[in-house]
Design a protein that fits this description.
Number of strands: 8
Strand order of the largest sheet: 1-2-3-4-5-6-7-8
Number of domains: 1
Radius of gyration: 19 Å
CATH architecture: Alpha-Beta Barrel
Strand content: 5-15%
CATH superfamily: Metal-dependent hydrolases
Bound molecules: adenine, zinc ion
CATH class: Alpha Beta
Shape: globular
Distance between the termini: 9 Å
Order of helices and strands: HEHHHHEHHEHEHEHEHEHHEHHHH
Largest sheet: 8 strands, parallel
Number of helices: 17
CATH topology: TIM Barrel
Length: 332
């Protein structure tokens, strides 16, 4: 089977996807018209053409501005539904989706607006496609820990719909240690824990996420290679890394996909997975990320299968569900 057929046909999970980062230029344009929001672009094409970033912050500035068109429950439904249709097309059978509540609450849009929209789309995808999905509530690390505590409290009516708590936004200068207490609280409440670390920030931030936040997964983590003892720890403990190749390229974490270290990390024995991060901003959904790796690196069909199996192992699915899908991949 060709690499393309393997990528297309194997069941996969996606574990690192910001729902606000799946807003297409077309939907942004439609919602801007609907709500009479003035965008700094003259057309859908101009929106897409603006997606050239020099670093994480230059992306985040556009991403937060783009989310400004999301105002009512239907908008959040449309956003989530469009992503879940894409999952169905790509044979993503399960996805663990991050959302940034503070991006919306700071604009006066509360949990009772976005959560029902998200949940309605997630139920429809489960009913119509059999696609399962979990939600990860992510705190914005450029805001204070107190603000994160307030957000955790505001989510109370929806705790049963949220599987994990995460940490994202501007990494440099906002280490995991800033959020130690709020993550301790979230952990004690039974949430799984993830955190972006080692995307632009140093290996030390990955250690902090492990030791202080007690993460179940690291989002990105590609800078782990700078610390040999960290590499050994990640391998011994099989701490999952949710790696996002096209994101790393678009945000200039690497200059060229040939420089991507995912294959080196995989061969070393780390539990690495492939993900799209913010697909409409970075030029590709999940399968495009697999394709981009295949074009740049000497990846085999077995590697693709291992990466897809890793995506189940690293997920928060029940063990028996993971094993069912892993067995399906082994049979391909
Ligand atoms: N929010 C959305 N995408 C992100 C990324 N790649 N890093 C940090 N925060 C984000
Ligand atoms: Zn991310």
């Amino acid at each position: 089977m060709s690499l393309s057929s393997i990528i297309k046909n194997i069941p996969k999970t996606e574990l690192h996807l910001h729902i606000e980062g799946s807003l297409t230029p077309e939907l942004m344009w439609r919602l801007a018209e609907k709500h009479s929001v003035t965008l700094p672009y003259a057309s859908v094409e101009e929106i897409a053409a603006a997606y050239n970033f020099k670093d994480l912050q230059s992306f985040l500035d556009l991403y937060y501005a783009g989310a400004g068109v999301l105002k009512d429950e239907d908008d959040f439904f449309s956003l989530m539904w469009a992503y879940l249709v894409k999952c169905h097309e790509e044979n993503i059978v399960h996805t663990e989706i991050m959302f940034d509540p503070q991006t919306h609450t700071e604009r006066g849009i509360g949990f009772d607006i976005f959560m029902p929209g998200f949940l309605r789309a997630m139920k429809k995808a489960q009913d119509e496609f059999g696609t399962s999905s979990y939600l990860i509530m992510s705190f914005l690390r450029h805001l204070s820990e107190e603000n994160a505590f307030e957000t955790l409290e505001a989510a109370a009516p929806y705790y049963a719909n949220i599987q994990a708590v995460g940490l994202d936004s501007s990494e440099l200068g906002h280490p995991p240690s800033k959020f130690e207490r709020v993550f301790k609280k979230a952990k004690s409440m039974g949430f799984k824990i993830v955190a972006h670390a080692g995307e632009e920030g140093p290996a030390e931030y990955i250690w902090e996420a492990i030791k202080l936040l007690e993460v179940d997964r690291i989002d990105h983590g590609v800078r782990c290679q700078e610390d040999e003892s960290l590499m050994r720890y990640l391998k011994d403990k099989q701490v999952p890394l949710t790696v996002c190749p096209l994101s790393n390229l678009k945000l200039c974490v690497i200059d060229n996909m040939k420089q991507h270290n995912i294959l080196t990390l995989l061969r070393y024995g780390l539990l690495v997975t492939v993900n799209s991060d913010d697909p409409t901003y970075f030029g590709g959904f999940l399968n495009d990320n697999y394709h981009a790796l295949c074009e740049a690196l000497p990846i085999t069909g077995e590697d693709i299968k291992t990466l897809a199996k890793n995506s189940f192992t690293a997920s928060f699915l029940p063990e028996e569900v993971k094993q069912t899908f892993i067995a399906q991949i082994d049979d391909i």
